[in-house]
């Protein structure tokens, strides 16, 4: 009887541990809004691998904290494409920024330039605000 209980508890504990480990490494995010159209549509769900902002590369789509805009509600998490990382030249469309992207900053863009807040409108984003890199649509 004791052996049967132990064999039932061990797989359940292993499954619970696996869930904890997966939640620390991955995140599922719902896409809202048209800013990443046509790549990601409003209502899509994406699988995100948690990474630090200093590990991202140009071309990757990231989930990151939006900037705090004066007299506006916080934007929450945003889905954007990284176009420049520290040490890269700052593109001409980013106004008021130094010639090179400084440490701890990123240039990010929406795939749909007509929609969304990105580096064209608010400048550089903090790399510390990166939650992770999008792996795939679910």
From TrEMBL:
<keyword id="KW-1133">Transmembrane helix</keyword>
<dbReference type="InterPro" id="IPR000223">
    <property type="entry name" value="Pept_S26A_signal_pept_1"/>
</dbReference>
<dbReference type="Pfam" id="PF10502">
    <property type="entry name" value="Peptidase_S26"/>
</dbReference>
<keyword id="KW-0378">Hydrolase</keyword>
<feature type="domain" description="Peptidase S26">
    <location>
        <begin position="9"/>
        <end position="90"/>
    </location>
</feature>
<keyword id="KW-0472">Membrane</keyword>
<keyword id="KW-0812">Transmembrane</keyword>
<dbReference type="InterPro" id="IPR036286">
    <property type="entry name" value="LexA/Signal_pep-like_sf"/>
</dbReference>
<dbReference type="InterPro" id="IPR037730">
    <property type="entry name" value="IMP2"/>
</dbReference>
<comment type="similarity">
    <text>Belongs to the peptidase S26 family. IMP2 subfamily.</text>
</comment>
<dbReference type="InterPro" id="IPR019533">
    <property type="entry name" value="Peptidase_S26"/>
</dbReference>
<protein>
    <recommendedName>
        <fullName>Mitochondrial inner membrane protease subunit 2</fullName>
    </recommendedName>
</protein>
<keyword id="KW-0645">Protease</keyword>
